[in-house]
């Protein structure tokens, strides 16, 4: 049985990330979606909230489970018995970053392989950061995330009120 680990911040989970997980679920026996508890950037949702949204997303997919994790990705992959780490690639800059991380992780854990899946063309521009910014600016995110995620995203932005700009890393679309 081939188990793979798909790590990320998933703040919030997007249709592009869902696509990568679903395609991995067709290729491998078991996919563990790992929500990183302490990403190195601002997050809008707690680890528990991000896990809950991802669990809701994959609730009807028998071979996908969702967990929170902490620490080195390759160490967690080892702990759960994963044979490989899955990552999604959208653009060239993703490749450069993922290639560097794969080489480092290969040094740390030569027993764990890395599999990169190219995103579907309709998701190449999608990122959690851009989705958060669109929602913050009052835009419609319904085509970028599942309905339950959109509801929670809009609710969080309402909770933040005028402090939303401080909580969401602005990517680029505000002034373009």
Summarize the structure.
With 176 residues, the protein is of the alpha/beta class.
Describe the structure.
The protein is an alpha/beta fold and about 180 residues long. It is built from seven helices and five strands. It has helices spanning about 15-25, 45-55, 75-80, 90-110, 130-135, 145-160, 165; strands spanning about 5-10, 30-35, 65-70, 85-90, 115-120. Helix 4 (about 90-110) links the parallel strand 4 and strand 5 (about 115-120). The model has no long low-confidence stretch (mean pLDDT about 90).
Computed CA radius of gyration, to the nearest angstrom:
16 Å
pLDDT < 50 runs, ≥5 residues: none
- Tell me the domain tally: 2
Order of helices and strands: EHEHEHEHEHHH
Number of strands: 5
Task: Kindly estimate the percentage of residues that lie in beta strands according to DSSP.
Answer: 15-25%
CATH topology of the largest domain: Rossmann fold
Give the helix proportion (percent range).
40-55%
Structural class: alpha/beta
Helix count equals 7
Mean pLDDT: 90
